Amino acid sequence: MTPSIKGTVYLLMTMIPLFILGYILSVNYEQMFFIFEWLLGVVVLSVFVLSIKSIREAQDERKWIAVSILAFILQFSVLSLFLGPYTFYPMIYIYYCFAVMAFIVFFKALQRNGTLRALPITFLIITGAFTVYVALINSLWGKDWI
Would the keyword Transmembrane helix turn up in this protein's UniProt record (predicted)? Predict the structure, then answer.
């Protein structure tokens, strides 16, 4: 595993305690929630830059791992934008487009990669859960089509 892929995976794992911090800030210290938002933005941007760097560095099957990390972070960014400042109904379809593209990349990474298969499988499970959540929001939206 290249150092940039390893660093990208470590940065992705830092999102877990960051979400716990976000929950604590949103429940107990709402006026400081902007700290979580900015930290999440920095982590997502760092993962994006490192995944592009690792796509350039990797020459063999690890390139598909880096591409799957990039697809996951793009899909996660669109989901975060939908749940955050851009909570508009058409954003749901933009998320669906990015999720379908991410699913395609994950399946390609599973086909082309023989060693690091756990990462695309994890991304498939997480993206599937996010997509079910967005589909639930879509069904509960109450859009009037008349």
Answer: yes
- The count of other CB atoms within 10 Å of the CB of residue 79 is 19
Residue 20: the pLDDT is 92
Contacts of 12 (CB under 8 A, 6+ apart): 47, 69, 72, 73
Token pair 């990462």 is found at 119
Residue 42 and residue 45: Cα distance in Å, rounded?
Answer: 5
Domain borders along the chain are 3-140
Q: How far is CA 5 from CA 11, 12, 117, 126, 141, in A?
A: 10, 10, 14, 19, 38
Structure confidence at residue 139 (pLDDT)? 84
First-last CA distance in the chain = 54
Q: What pTM, to 2 d.p., does this model score?
A: 0.87
Output the DSSP codes for 101-114.
HHHHHHHHHHHH-S
Residue ranges for the chain with pLDDT beneath 50:
146
